[in-house]
């Protein structure tokens, strides 16, 4: 057993950390405040190869592994959780299903520009009436010669509006329930494909979350991803990996809040000494650091399993469940250490606490993670 | 164009320095490419992108310094050479380093049109190695450059002289040392990091080089290493202005000893 990152992983972490500090952190508070998505940050990530980390070079990727990917999401999220989820949704949710299930033509046409960072990706599964119960979706796709005609609404779409390539799911045969769901690749600008309202959110406010609408949207059959009826499986498998990205985002948020709290505790003086000399604060810091380390190890382990081609569904559900809860606890404690100042937007921990909450909710709520984990346990 | 870059791995500039048994404690410290050397690496890669050729990065240091070479290779350098002088212990100074670099360049047949160095290392700040190396190789050098243009064998530089700029023309081969402002070093890209491990790295020790240990022995000796004194709270003079001025002059003379 080895608990040391390879030289490449260390170099990559250093590079992403520097990039995050210099190019992402300075505007994080302002982008949050004004709810601005800054595409130029994504473009720069593309230039550095971050947008195609785990894909092979033949399809425009870098040929690194999933561990590299989670390290990148972690380091970005440490300074800006919105930027972390932009990359996570782009890689895990939009690119992964095309990498795994796409035809060579689909990979060339859609995955390559995603990997090279020339286009941004998104994933459309959730609907107003179908969240955790994804199979209850109402969006339909009806075959019409060489085309499918899509109708319906998808909500809470990360990168929505700004993304050029969407992997979406629709019912092709209602009688077959979840076996009647099919995946499609839809491009921005396709007639009948439009954007609805932009959500006003508690956190990750510089990551756009939109409704996407299909109104008699005709998609060539060549943009069907996988077989008819394979969609639900593709959606669930995609989320298995996506959870790892969210776990990494949660670890990053927690680490960012911890770093800020530790530095503040050493500086802030009350009763004539830094509050870090009070055991009440020391114990908080010790608990926070321990939780973060445990969450990180679960996350890296799940990413390592995926890189090795080993089953990782249970591990990534555990990582996401644990890391999401840790992010919420650690950011809440970080605000507590900052006291009244922590509650203001003068310091970043307020933003981080707001950002942390979503990691317990999206890509499968933490309640659903427990369902996933217990299903594995009972099957084993 | 064949380009050599001499670089040093130094403490991360944000590292807190501690001293143990009269030596700087390296335990747990983060190391980086000396920031001035990073400008040199960036400039070398830019020259290669413009003129073609090959960038070789050379360092002298312990095994950990390989990391600095790998980072330079991830940025775009083509190959690396590391010389480990462990055998010499502390008997190393700028004279030694320049001699070893010159021997390495000679014996490894490292052809060069231009050599780039940082103008100084942020750890010992001597700013000697570049110029010394140029002397040993019998080529001209220009230090603290902030702009470099090479056309054919003509070299034009802008050199920082205490805030003013000197414009100098010279010819290849030459050695130049980089000042802040020369460029904005790129991040090593992810594909660059992936490729860096496969790029050739030559590891040498003192025995691999034809050098007389006495000849390269340090010409200086470090007597003592200590941290700067802790900054004390300032003194605020009070009372009649004329008295304050008198006291200030008194203090500057007797305490601060600056006048």
Automatic annotation (TrEMBL), chain A:
Residue intervals of the Acyl-CoA oxidase/dehydrogenase middle domain: 122-217
Keyword Signal: no
GO MF, one example: acyl-CoA dehydrogenase activity
Keyword Transferase: no
InterPro entries tied to this protein: Acyl-CoA_DH_CS, Acyl-CoA_Oxase/DH_mid-dom, Acyl-CoA_Oxase/DH_mid-dom_sf, AcylCo_DH-like_C, AcylCo_DH/oxidase_C, AcylCoA_DH/ox_N, AcylCoA_DH/ox_N_sf, AcylCoA_DH/oxidase_NM_dom_sf
SUPFAM superfamilies documented for this protein: Acyl-CoA dehydrogenase C-terminal domain-like, Acyl-CoA dehydrogenase NM domain-like
Acyl-CoA dehydrogenase/oxidase C-terminal domain: residues covered: 229-375
Keywords: FAD, Flavoprotein, Oxidoreductase
Domain Acyl-CoA dehydrogenase/oxidase N-terminal as annotated: residue spans: 6-118
Catalytic activity, reaction form: a 2,3-saturated acyl-CoA + A = a 2,3-dehydroacyl-CoA + AH2
Cofactor dependence: FAD
Family to which this protein belongs: Belongs to the acyl-CoA dehydrogenase family.
Protein name: Acyl-CoA dehydrogenase
From TrEMBL, chain B:
Gene3D superfamilies linked: HUPs (3.40.50.620)
Keyword Membrane: no
Gene Ontology cellular-component terms listed: cytosol
A GO molecular-function descriptor: electron transfer activity
Any Pfam family hit: ETF
Subunit (UniProt): Heterodimer of an alpha and a beta subunit.
Protein name: Electron transfer flavoprotein subunit beta
Record organism: Lihuaxuella thermophila
